[in-house]
Amino acid sequence: MRLHRLEIEGFGPFRTRQIVDFDGFAGDGLFLIAGRTGAGKSSILDAVCFGLYGSVPRYEGGEKRLRSDHCEPGDPSEVVVEFSTTSGRYRVIRSPEYERPAKRGGGLTKQASGVQLDVLEADEWITLAAKEKRVADELDEILQLSREQFLQVILLAQNRFARFLLADSKERQALLRRLFGTERFEDVQSRFETRRRAAESALAGIAATVGARIDEAERVVTAAELWGEHSHADGQPVTTDLRLSALHDALARAAYQVERRGTERDEAEKRLTEADAALATLRDEQKAQQERDRARAAVARLEAEQPEIDEASTRLRRAREAEALRATITAAERALEAHDAAVAQQVQAREAWEAAGIELDDPSTSALQEWAADRTQEIGAWRHAAGLEQNTDALAAELAAAQVRVDETSARAEAAEAAHAEQPGRLAELTSQRDAARRSADRIDDVAAALTAAQTRREAAVQVESLDAERAAAERALAEASGALAAQQTALAQLRRRRLDGFAGELATALTEGEPCTVCGSTAHPSPAAHSDPVSADDIEHAESERDAAVEVEREAHNRVTEVRAAQASAAARAEERTVEIAFAELAAAVDAHTAAQQAVAALEAAERKLTELSAQSAELEKARTDAAAARAAASEALALVAQRRDEAQRLIAEARGDAESVGARIAAVADLIRTARVFSDALDEQVRRAAVLADAQTAQIEALATSDFADAASVRGALLAASEQQALDARVTAHTVQRTKEREILLALEMRVLPEEPLDLTRVEEAAATARSTWKTLVDLAGRADATAEQLSSLIEAAQTAYARSAEQQADFEVLRGLADTIAGRAGNTHKMTLETFVLAAELEEIVDAANRRLSDMSAGRYRLQHSDALAARGAASGLGIVVFDAFTGQTRPAQSLSGGETFLSSLALALGLAEVVTARAGGIQLDTLFIDEGFGSLDADTLEVAMRTLDELRSGGRTVGIISHVESMQEQIPAQLVVEQTQAGPSRIRSR
Question: How far apart are CA 625 and CA 420, in angstroms?
């Protein structure tokens, strides 16, 4: 993979678009990313990582932190990365989520994060994907590196060198797991552990089941007293086989007990059957004896009641014969009553007709009906006039209301005309006021912008004055820290020089006559060097620690000066060279102008609102004028129609009233006469009809009496009985007859059995049957218990034997599974306590260490080599992935934490490069044409820095481009190709090449 181009805008310390052309450094192969601390050197690598993976290596606080703090709300934020692989050339355009001004309504709104992946085909960029998930999938296929692998093989980010070297086994395992994807081995371990626990649980469950079944069976044997000669209390068998054998013996005794109890139960049941049969026979004879005596008494009582029953039977027969004549007799009586009532009604109606004084030649039914029809027709013609007569007052009121409406609508029409005539003058006046206010309000945006600018200049001018003291203090602190750092660096250089000068004397003090020299191998030491000015490694390390502390203090002081200067420069730019007094005066003038403009805007809005209201009011007045005229015409027309209806009604009422007081009174009088005529006609018809009915009923009564046993209607009335009385008599006669027949039959059958006359005694036989039943119940219970005990005991023994046999089969399988699970999990016989995943990662770590040693041997002049350590950690901590350092000077290994700062850097660099080689090989052997290293070269002395530079120079082989981030001045002198990050006075940083 090779990076070609990087564009950064609105990201980190970069506000405006910055362009980095990595192809421009391809000829040199090695270039330096230089700049002061805090300028934004590492932000270039952050942009590369963000463009490719959507996150940065230094922090995981979310995309919102990636947007430059120098950006204005409307500025964009975007990173463009162009790179190539063996599959082609690609471009990623990515922007984080940030807030921008809303297009509508003012305020801010969220600009969603975006990403786009393009491929270069025929000199034209073609879009492959434009969604987060799709782009991520495409990049995984193109890069063939995860983010963690990218940070280890291409972008060696700040603070990641020593972390891998100095980490413990647990931390190193977490990193290697992410790089090599060995989580599957942990899953294998987890699955084997789950299977082991399940098998152990199942085996324990079977053993518990066997024990529970045997315990339950022994409790059953004890409760049933089936132990025989064995005493359960004296000592229980200790093995499962012996306990099962004893239970089988008890089961045999239980079977014998079942057989014996069954025989006893059968004999008792036979004796009970015989006793029950004797008792049943004697009880039957006793019952028959009692029934015979009762039947004798019942027959005697029924024979005594027979005369009363015969008399009741005769009454019932005559009542039924009279019932057949009831309807005929009743009909004749009712016909006579109805005829008499009709005659009386006819007489009363005639008297009422004659009293009315109406003369008819023949007051027959037809004449009366004809007269009534003529009068009814006349009433129909008068009813309309009667309705008009009743509504006379309402019609008068309607006429008065119509006149009132005519007056009201005329008044409204005149008022609408007057209001409409006033509108043109008011409209002209308001238009003039609106135009004057608009001329003043049009300047509101310019005045507001001037006010905002004046406020910004006032605040910036005040801030410039307040930062003068802070800047002076920060510059003094930086000068002091720089002086202290220079003194510490001078002291350290002197100590290193004295250390090198004293190496010969230090070796000479260890020489022994006759022993070979560790340098030349000679056993003769004619002129050993003197060790006059000894400097130990601890002295060097102590001086380096003090130098590092001074570097940190100087860095912090420089950062503070940079921050204060940037803040003051930014404030001065915003103040636009105004003093505090001038800025306050300009602000006061801007406030007054803005207030006047706001008042003009308010006046304009009020005038516009009044004009709108006046226009709407004019339209309403025009509509009201038209509506009022139409309403006045409609009211006049309605008044004329009401007057016409009143005149017509008066004419019809006079014609219908005649000589009567009113039309209604005339109609009521004629209606009474019509009712009288019709009542008289109906009474004449009813009298004729009732006479005919009476004659027919009397004829039918005479004929019915002639064919019966009754002399007249009165004798029939005397024989009649109510239906309830007839039913009671019939039920009594029938019940007596049926009962007497039944009792005679019962008595005859019992008399044929020749039963004794004296009562039978059941006491002795009942006692014998009760004794037999009690004995049988006791034996049935004993036999049931024996049978249940034998069945329960047999079931428990069978279940225990089955489970016991199954547990023996599973025990062997469990031992194999447990041994394998313990080995994978680092337990039992696993002497190194290494899990399966740790074992796999240990193999990878050995390859990483071998690759690192190929460089570390040259970088340390053959003194140091890294070694993989699988030694057990203390107190059960994770082990198997340790790294120790072999020191050729001492011939011993020591922890990596014991290395000095420079030695740690060289070892970490070698290990990081070795890790990059192995990860690259595991990722499919991809070609890495671009490499970045972001680490503190400032901790190296001149000689060690030279060694590190040689190693970095070797990385350029094969056309690789290596970028180094550092602010060390000596590296700037050695690496001519540079990418310089500078911080401007306004605050944002910029990038330039040289």
Answer: 8
What is the Cα–Cα distance from 477 to 558, expressed in whole angstroms?
Answer: 9
The whole-angstrom separation of Cα 612 and Cα 629 is 26
**What phi, psi does 14 have (nearest 5°)?**
-100, 120
CA separation, residue 790 to residues 274, 787, 797, 798 (Å): 31, 5, 11, 12
Tokens of residue 62, six digits: 């979310």
Pinpoint the alpha helices (H) of 900-994. 901-922, 942-954, 969-974
Q: Are 701 and 336 spatial neighbours (Cβ–Cβ below 8 Å)?
A: no
Residues in Cβ contact with 521 at an 8 Å cutoff, skipping those fewer than 6 apart: none
Using alpha carbons only, what angle is made at residue 290 by residues 284 and 293, rounded to the nearest 5 degrees?
Answer: 140
Q: Which residue's structure tokens are 């050729």? A: 888
- Tokens 């007596």: give the residue: 736
The first and second tokens of residue 566, run together, are: 């940037």
Task: Kindly list the distances between the CA atom of residue 123 and the CA atoms of 89, 341, 365, in Å, as whole numbers in the listed order.
Answer: 10, 129, 126
* pLDDT tens-digit readout, 336-391: 888 888 888 888 888 877 777 777 777 777 777 888 787 787 777 777 777 777 77
d(CA 933, CA 951): 12
How many CB atoms are closer than 10 A to CB 350? 14
User: Letter for the amino acid at 608?
Assistant: E
Which DSSP category does 872 fall into? P
Sign of the CA dihedral 41, 47, 50, 55?
positive
Query: What's the burial of 362, exposed, middle or buried (CB within 10 Å: 0-12/13-18/19+)?
Result: exposed
Contact 849, 172 (CB under 8 A): no
Half-sphere exposure of 297 (CA within 13 A, CB side): 5
Residue 125's beta-bridge partner residues?
A: 120
The pTM of the full predicted model, rounded to 2 decimals, is 0.41
Pairing type for strands 30-35 and 978-983 reads parallel
Rounded CA-CA distance 665/77 in Å is 104
> Out of 60-64, 209-213, 719-723, which region has the weakest mean confidence (pLDDT)?
60-64
Residue pair 910/859 in contact by the 8 Å Cβ criterion: yes
